[in-house]
Write a structure and sequence with these properties.
This protein has a single domain, classed as VC0802-like. It is of the alpha+beta class and about 130 residues long. The chain has a 6-stranded antiparallel beta sheet. A hairpin with a 4-residue loop joins β5 and β6. About 25% of the residues lie in helices and about 35% in strands. The mean pLDDT is about 95.
């Protein structure tokens, strides 16, 4: 398994990067409506397939959503075996009253925070990285 496991190194080098645009979570029974290249990720649940995609595309497709998010990628290559990174950043975001939906990719952690809290979230994550 590649990637960093040391929490101190992960925090110091997490380098939060804001991805352009607004993103939404939708739940669908049939994902054929959405071209694969339009989705950020999909996750199969018993109730349906959760799909994250741009708000613009969701609006074009007349999809229902309740949550508009900013997408922040932590640029450090974190190992899937790493312990404590999610707890560290979710705790400081929670202290500011910011919800955080996390997706762990093979290389990076991806955070979806309320779009209205983007600036504060980036600031809090950068401060955590500089401790």
């Amino acid at each position: 398994m590649s990637g960093e496991c040391n929490l101190e190194i992960l925090l110091k080098n997490m380098t939060p990067r804001l991805n352009e645009g607004a993103y939404v979570f939708v739940s669908l029974k049939d994902t054929a409506l959405i071209p694969r290249e339009e989705t950020v990720f999909e996750f199969k649940e018993a109730e349906g397939v959760t799909v994250v995609l741009s708000k613009i595309k969701a609006d074009e497709l007349h999809l229902h959503y309740d949550f508009v998010a900013a997408w922040i990628t932590l640029m450090v290559h974190s190992s899937l075996h790493a312990v404590g990174l999610t707890a560290a950043f979710s705790s400081v975001l929670a202290e500011q009253g910011i919800s955080c939906n996390v997706v762990a990719g093979f290389y990076h952690d991806h955070l979806f925070v309320p779009e209205c809290d983007t600036k504060i979230a980036i600031s809090v994550l950068n401060a955590l990285s500089q401790k």
